[in-house]
Amino acid sequence: MKVKFYAIAAFILCSDMAAPAQQSFLDGEAVFKNDEVVFHQIDEHTWVGTGNLVYNESLYLVEGTEKAVLIDAGTRIKDLDKIVATITKKPIMLVATHVHNDHTGSAVDRFPEIYINPGDKDYIPQVMPRYKGNIKFLTDGEEIDLGGRKLEVVFTPGHTPGSTTFIDKNAAYGFSGDSFGSGNLLLSMDFSTLIATCERMSTIMENYGIKFLFPGHYYGNNAETKQRVDDMITLSKDVISGKVKGEKKSNGMMGLNLVITDYGVNINYSEKSIK
């Protein structure tokens, strides 16, 4: 499948990169499987779906007593609404971590409304050109009440202007999409924005005991930890100060022609990002 530049959000790096030991939920029995997506259970009321078109693009189903949230919709998953209905009988609210079409692909057309960060609204005509449903905007800091379970909306710009993380404080985890890159961040904004995002998330993780964030391209052992977020602050400051310089690439995705590697991550960026 030909994937346009804005469709490619992140990809996992080689398996020898340093990463803390984490439980893999992808090794167990699937609760649903077809040629386009596989769903595994994370805990009693949470599931992760794995697509196969763009670097294991991930979507998450988070259930409360009154409704469920579907976080992202993958690249191209036929009848996604019917699939999630086999897993939960609760009404579904569709939200997006950001508007790239490996997260807001054709399956969004199966849902009557979608909630996004308004920072990404300019991408809608290109990424979701056929969507006829209602597009509603999230608010930074709002809580999505699912009944007995809440997700806090945290705007985390950097990968895109409208990148968003959803935090479940009681469960001590969150869902970050491509905000921190799944090990390989594509930074469309500047390093100062990324530092502010990482500093805010580090504080949230510290204050509320958030153990990790499930990323937009989840491979079973690459959830984002507080240490990973803190390391990205250090690396970003080193780039801005000139302490480290990126390696040039001739074929960088999204026009990002430089890459810096350290602390077990890549950050892909352009000269315009160094501020």
Mean pLDDT: 90
CATH architecture: 4-Layer Sandwich
Q: What is the C-level CATH assignment? A: Alpha Beta
The biggest sheet, with number of strands, parallel, antiparallel or mixed sense and barrel status, is: 6 strands, mixed
CATH superfamily placement: Ribonuclease Z/Hydroxyacylglutathione hydrolase-like
Total of DSSP H or I helical runs spanning 4+ residues: 4
Find the count of extended strands (DSSP E, 2+ residues).
17
Low-pLDDT runs: 1-21
What strand line-up does the widest sheet have? 1-2-3-4-5-6
Category from helices, strands and their pairing:
alpha+beta
Strand content: 25-35%
Please provide the ordered H/E string of secondary-structure elements: EEEEEHEEHEEEEEEHEHEEE
Distance between the termini: 35 Å
Helix content: 10-25%
Overall structural domain count: 1
Radius of gyration: 17 Å
The geometry reads as: globular
As an assembly, this protein is single chain
Brief overview:
This protein has 275 residues and is an alpha+beta fold.
